[in-house]
Design a protein that fits this description.
heterodimer, A: mainly alpha, 2 strands, B: alpha+beta, six-stranded antiparallel beta sheet, 2 helices, elongated
Chain lengths: 194, 156
């Protein structure tokens, strides 16, 4: 698999509709890490049992089962959050980012950086979106979400647009540009040459 | 049966048994999860409905915990039967996707009456109009019409 930092960042778009609250970001980021380690555990068990056939279908079955388990745990701990983002919990199983993270781990000295970076980006994006949109930070709770006000609730946050789905794509674009600038250690033009 | 075949059968058996155990645990957790889920939803419905003028009087509002899915409205919609005073009323939870992400709307309906939108659950203490949370009035009207049509036809 080719190293593809652009594809890595674009993979975040899968989560954009869901990661609108920090609480949802936490749920999805934790899930991603759990799925990553579930794959490694599954591979370890298959190695112990010396099974070298149908590794991919068995691993994907284990990942789907892990995601279902995770959904059930979220359902118990925060049922309302689960109803809101339940559909999105299964998406990371088939995410390119997960496959890339596993590939990097297996071929680059047990490198867990892509998995951790992706979870961090997810948390960061959801935090920025919620603070911009509502001026609060939410945490998952049994009776819905627990809100911590950051901006007084009678004041409307000034950059509410960045909390919308469209705003999140723009933030992602800016983030991608910053990432490329840092990676190449130069100030890249905002407009590509035609 | 040679040793290699026996070994393969043994390994497959262990793997299959592992999946089977997980499946039974899974079934158990689903049922425990449902109890928590319904309790949480009934509390949320009562809190939201009480803020609507229709249900703000002192009459008792009791929600029956076990819901039924209402696929005609939405793939994830849940219908809760309730009693408000002496009247039967149904509360329908519908996930609504807005500009600021997903929310859950509470709709109230009863036989041969039009549906009412009670509000969104899971909001901060200082609540604002639904447009503030990115849910358009068109989205709400769409579900109101859908729920009303079901209750008028009697297909719920």
């Amino acid at each position: 698999m080719k190293k593809n930092s652009l594809g890595f960042i674009l993979g975040l778009s899968l989560m954009i509709p869901a990661a609108s609250h920090f609480a949802y970001g936490i749920i999805l980021a934790v899930e991603f890490i759990i799925l990553f380690f579930a794959w490694l555990l599954c591979k370890y068990i298959l190695d112990i049992l010396n099974i070298d056939q149908f590794i991919r279908p068995i691993s994907y079955a284990a990942l789907i089962m892990t995601a279902t388990w995770y959904m059930l745990i979220v359902k118990i701990l925060s049922p309302i959050a689960n109803m809101a983002i339940g559909v999105y919990i299964f998406m990371p199983v088939f995410s390119y980012i997960l496959a890339l993270s596993i590939f990097e781990y297996e071929h680059d000295f047990e490198n867990i950086a892509p998995a951790v970076t992706y979870s961090g980006l997810l948390l960061g994006l959801s935090l920025v979106r919620e603070v911009n949109a509502f001026g609060t930070i939410s945490l998952p709770a049994i009776n819905g979400l627990f809100y911590i006000p950051i901006i007084p609730q009678n004041i409307e946050p000034p950059f509410r647009f960045f909390g919308t789905n469209a705003g999140a794509f723009i933030l992602l674009g800016i983030g991608m540009w910053l990432y490329m600038c840092i990676q190449k250690s130069e100030f890249l033009p905002l407009r590509s040459k035609l | 049966m040679n040793t290699k075949t026996l070994d393969t059968v043994k390994k497959s058996g262990i793997l299959f048994a592992g999946f089977l155990i997980l499946y039974f645990l899974f079934w158990l957790v689903i049922h425990i999860g449902l109890l928590f889920e319904y309790r949480s939803f009934t509390t949320a419905i009562q809190t939201t409905a009480r803020q609507h003028p229709l249900f703000s009087s002192n009459q008792a509002l009791s929600v029956i915990q076990k819901p039924t899915p209402l696929y005609k409205v939405h793939g994830q919609a849940l219908q809760f039967s309730a009693k408000y005073g002496n009247n039967d009323v149904d509360f329908i939870l519908v996930p609504l996707m807005g500009r600021y992400g997903p929310y859950i709307g509470v709709f109230a309906a009863s036989k041969n009456s039009y549906a009412t939108f009670c509000g969104l659950i899971n909001l901060p203490k200082q609540q604002k109009k639904i447009a503030y949370y990115g849910i358009s009035s068109e989205t709400v009207t769409y579900y109101l019409k859908k729920i009303s049509s079901i209750y008028h036809v009697g297909g719920a």
